[in-house]
Amino acid sequence: MSLRLRTITREEHLAFVRSRPSVSHMQVPSWGEVKSEWRSESIGWADATGNLVGAGLVLYRQLPKVKRYLAYLPEGPVIDWFDPDLDRWLAPLLAHLKAQGAFSVKIGPPVVIRRWGTATIKEAVAGGQAKRLRDVDPDWYEPRAFEVADRLRRAGWRQGEDGGAGFGDVQPRYVFQVPLANRSLDDIQRGFNQLWRRNIKKAEKSGVEVVQGGYDDLPVFHRLYQLTAERDRFTPRPLAYFQRQWQQLTTEDPNRMRLYLAYHEGEPLAATTMLTVGQHVWYSYGASANHKREVKPSNAIQWRMIRDAYALGAGVYDLRGISDTLDEEDPLYGLIQFKLGTGGQAAEYLGEWDFPVNKVLHKALDLYMSRR
C-alpha cells in the first residue's frame, strides 16, 4: 500500500506526537522554533484513507549564496522503521525534500540496536576485556535493526561515522538510560551503586535543597553553565538560546522543559534542564560550580529529576550521550562512569544516515566539515 507525503500543520503534527508513547524531543514542532538558524517544516505520511501514519520535523540549513539546503531530521522521522517495504516511506521523503531544494538529507532512525546493563559494563571494564562498548556482548539486541541498516544501504543511504554534516548538531549514537516502567522508586534507588546512594544521603544531611525553577531563573543556570564550559573546555550556548528554548517548548506543553537548581546555604551550586515528550524524559543540560562539591549537589539534582520523571509517568529517564570507550585512561570515559552509578543501561542507536541528492555538493560539504 502506497503512502502519500505532504506538509502538515503544527496542530496535525502535535496530535500525531500525542498519539504515540513518545517521540524524540527533536521531532516536535517547537524544536524547529528553538533551532532558529534553520528553517523548519512538519511533514506527514498519510495512508489510503488519509490517516496520518508517520510524521517528521525537517530542519533546512541553507548553503551560503545558493538556494540549496541540507535537510536534517534529528532522531527522526517517526515512521514504521521495521516495515519490510521501507522504501514506501523514504522514497516520497526524498522526492519531497529534493523538490524543496535539498542537496543532502540526514536522518536519525530512532531504532535501538543493542543494550548493555551496568553489571555487564562494569565486568568488562574490571576485566579489561574490551576497550570499546561495541566489542562487549550485549544483554539485549534487536535483530530487525540490522535489516533496517541493510535496507538503507541498498537504497543508497550512507551511514555516518562519529561525525558528519550536521553543522554541530550531530546526535549521539550511544546514550545511557534508566528504565522506570514497572518499577517502584525504592527499586530504582536500590539500583544505584553504593557511592550514588551515599552521595544522595550526604546531600540531604548537608542541607542541599533542590528546587524547580522558572524562566526568571535561567540566568542563574547560565552562570553555572558558563563555569562548566570553562572548566570542561567547550563553547557554551548563549543565554538567549535557553530563553528561546524555554519560551517555545513550554508554550507547546508546560512540562516539555523544566529547570532544576540545587542550593546550599542559599548559594546555587548545580542546575539542570529536563525535557519531556510522552513517556520519555531527557536530562538535557547540566551545570555546576567549582566549589562545595563535597555536598554532592549533582547527585541530589539527578535524584530529584528521576523522582519527578517517575511522577510524570515516564517509562525511561535518559541521561543522553556517552562515548563507547571503556578505557579508563580515556578522558571520555568519565561520560559513562558517572552515569553507571544510576544502574541503568547503555543503548546503541542505529546512528545517522546521509543521502547525497547532489553528490558534488554533498562531497563539498563533507570536505568543508572535515576542515572545520
Report on this structure.
With 372 residues, this protein is α+β, with helices and mostly antiparallel strands. The chain folds into two domains: 194 residues, 3-Layer(aba) Sandwich (Aminopeptidase), CATH 3.40.630; 134 residues, Gcn5-related N-acetyltransferase (GNAT) (Aminopeptidase, 3-Layer(aba) Sandwich). The chain is built from twelve helices and 16 strands. Strand 13, helix 10 and strand 14 form a beta-alpha-beta unit. The relative contact order is 0.17. About 2% of the residues have low confidence. One of its GO terms (biological process) is cell wall organization.
List the helices and strands and how they pair.
Layout: E1 4-7, H1 10-18, H2 29-34, E2 39-46, E3 52-62, E4 69-73, H3 87-99, E5 102-107, E6 112-117, H4 118-127, E7 140-141, H5 143-154, E8 158-159, E9 174-179, H6 185-190, H7 194-206, E10 209-213, H8 218-232, H9 239-252, E11 257-264, E12 267-277, E13 280-288, H10 297-311, E14 316-321, H11 333-340, E15 345-349, E16 353-356, H12 359-371
| Helix and strand run | EHHEEEHEEHEHEEHHEHHEEEHEHEEH
Going by CATH, the architecture of the largest domain would be: 3-Layer(aba) Sandwich
* Quaternary organization: single chain
Quantity of strands, as a count: 16
| Termini separation | 44 Å
CATH class of the largest domain: Alpha Beta
> Describe the biggest sheet?
9 strands, mixed
Q: Kindly report the CATH topology of the largest domain.
A: Aminopeptidase
Radius of gyration: 21 Å
**What's the tally of helices?**
12
Strands across the major sheet, in which order? 7-6-15-9-14-13-12-11-10
Estimated structural class: alpha+beta
CATH level-four homologous superfamily name of the largest domain: Gcn5-related N-acetyltransferase (GNAT)
